[in-house]
Amino acid sequence: MRLLRRPRAWTAAAIASALLTGGASLSLQPADTTLPEAPEQASDEYAPNLELVVAPESPVFTEKDTEVSFTVLLRNDGDLSVPEGSVELALGEQFSGGSALPRPEELAAPDPAEAMPSDDAGAPVRTVIATAPIDAVAGGKQQRTTITVPVAQVAAFSATGHGVYPLYATYQPSDSASASSLSAFSPVIWEGPGDAEDSVDLTSIVPLTLPAVVHSMPTRSQLNAAVPRFEALVDYAARSHSILAIDPRIITAIRAYGTEAPQASRELLERLESGQIASFLLQYGDADPAAQADLGLTELLQPDGFEFITRFGTWEPQPSSTEDRSAPTGSPDEGVPDDADSAAAAQTGESPETEAAEPQPEADETALPPADDALALWPNGLAAAWPAEGQVGASTMALLRGAGLDLAVLRSDNVTLTGGPRAKLGESGALVTDAELDAGVRLALTGDTETERALGKAQASARLALAASSGVKGLMLGVDRGASAEVERPEELLSELTTQRWVRSVAHSAQAEGAAQLTAVRPEEERTELLRTALANEPVVLEARAALVNPEYLDSYQRMRVLSLFATKHAAPDANFAATARQFGERDNELHDGVRIVGTKRAQLVGGSTRIPIQLRNSLPFDAVVNLEVSPTSAALSLPERTFHDIQLPEDSTDRVLVPAKSRVSSGDSALLLSVTSVDGEYTASTGRLEITISSAVETVAVALLAASAALLFGFGIWRSVRRRRSPSPRE
Questions:
Q1: Overall pTM > 0.85
Q2: Lowest mean pLDDT segment, chosen from 188-202, 260-274, 501-515, 662-676
Q3: Contact 167, 54 (CB under 8 A)
Q4: Do residues 593 and 543 make contact, with C-beta atoms less than 8 angstroms apart?
């Protein structure tokens, strides 16, 4: 655990994240248990900030193993060095029940001056199995040590001792004045609990989400890069009877690009559309319904069109009347889907029957893009939603019911669950994921070090093993949506967990039914207020649309950005949402000031006339067209042209406008007032003032000097020619 300079109790954030410090980042517990507070520990005022982590190299040890290995990580996040010391490994009493969470007294490092706790003391009995030295750790560094113990030396690992045990690592520094002792925890599985027939039904909810670098809709290259990960997760979902939770941006982008979409992505879409794997659509960008409900919204946020992405797409022309529409016309990726055909027909004002009856020209032009509804259509999916974990209240459920979503994915720390994880919750249904299992898998995917990832794997495996031995009526795993989008090959971890012999993968419809009662929780207030600010600023950003060639592009682009800001991954306790919101606001300002005047603030006019360069910057991701109006502040300058019409500025570019100007005085100061407006003049995108210093005499002097220099050169040439003619040659 981290040794802080002041003792403290664990806060509700530890409950929400289920990652207890103590080096172990312990898993979340079921809803009917209470997370213990860590006992207060005194620490030296100058003690460094230490963290201890312990994990088995393999989550399961079997009777075939002759030795077992554990990894200990000591991390020093402070500036001061910690002295060398030792780490002691000990096993506690075998777990009983379904949870692998330790008792409160097990979280504290034992006092080295006291003997090992005994039964009559009420504290856990620990059996030391190994001790290893630890070298000094400098500030900002960490040390990783592997400790190997022969199985014969571990009394608990006997032929009859199958089960889950708590493993404790205790660090003791050689100099107690410079650092305090601390303890870490990890569960360890010996062979597996009970007999081979003990098992637990498990259903996984596997997200197909986009990485954080995609702030709006994915580009074709981003889609192409993500497809291999999607395919691997879909393969896992098919093998394990899992549910796919799909970010609609993936579906919509593939359809919006049409034949321009990567071939692999179109093949993936065909597989998903087949309906062979249970699935449902998240909100765009995995936006959080719980946060929207907390803001008081009466409807879920929706996209505002997809024109800004369909501009990159192409579609096959409509079939002619001589073609049989029911017959295949080529490979699966050729042609327009039926829903896209209907949408295109709707945009042209003609019905499919009319198109079939009337002759159509053999057009060489591409078809119109599908309608917005067709791009997002998902008829075979479940009517479900997945709010941010542990933050759902009654208002969230009401908002979902109003949107026609009668199934919600909730976490066990957000409800009181009786019976199986497929539960009835008032007027709605619920799929309740296990908080302790979710947290273990999340740590296994996102841990900063190999030791922390091994710890998460041990926690998840222990939860499954204990659930099997204690007769839990099924579990559901909600795979972390942010983690699965960022890590490489998440399906490997999921496959390893679900192929353990005490796990039986089943479809969600095969899970036992139960009853759930909501334990209402509100999202974090700071996040809610930051989201409120971003949503309120949306109309301000959209003012810049007046300067665009296609104003509707900014509407759909900005709404997609807002939806992405609402993403559930930003609701995690360890997410620095304030920094994310700050970056979002900075980009808002760039979009609002999309077309602006840049460059120098002062220029010098050294001649009677010149062209003054004015630089215009288009920060918008779309083409802009604007007018530039220029006015002098005094009669010292004369401008033959004051308004420059229809200046084309490509997306994310800088261009220069040359403004002709004449000076009416030989020297002095003046200025130009600059204004960038929309073509209709009703919107002012940017204003500025360019100070002008007039020095016409400089030009006169320069011309005179140039003329004198030319005269001197000409006279010198004549003098040399005359002199050569007068000088006699050597022959003469």
A1: no
A2: 188-202
A3: yes
A4: no
d(CA 564, CA 568): 9
Cβ 140 vs Cβ 79: under 8 Å:
yes
Q: Which run of H or E residues covers position 203?
A: strand 200-208
Reduce the DSSP state of residue 306 to 3 states and report it: coil
Q: pLDDT tens digits, residue range 216-248? A: 999 999 999 999 999 999 999 999 999 999 999
pLDDT digits (tens, 9 = 90+) for 141-176: 999 999 999 998 898 888 788 899 999 999 998 877
**46 CB-contact burial (10 Å; exposed 0-12 / middle 13-18 / buried 19+):** exposed
Residue 669 has pLDDT above 80, yes or no: yes
Per the CB < 8 A criterion, the answer to whether 604 and 693 are in contact is yes
> How far is Cα of residue 573 from the mean position of the Cα atoms in its chain?
14
Paired residues of 629 in beta bridges: 643, 675
CB 245 within 8 A of CB 205: yes
User: Are 483 and 178 in contact, with CB atoms under 8 Å apart?
Assistant: no
Contact 318, 336 (CB under 8 A): yes
Q: Is residue 286 within 8 Å of residue 568, measured between CB atoms?
A: yes
Beta strands in 38-195 (DSSP E): 50-56, 60-61, 67-76, 85-91, 127-134, 142-150, 163-173, 182-190
Q: Which residue stretches of 349-388 are H helix? A: 352-357, 372-375
CA distances from 565 to 287, 520, 646 (A): 7, 23, 35
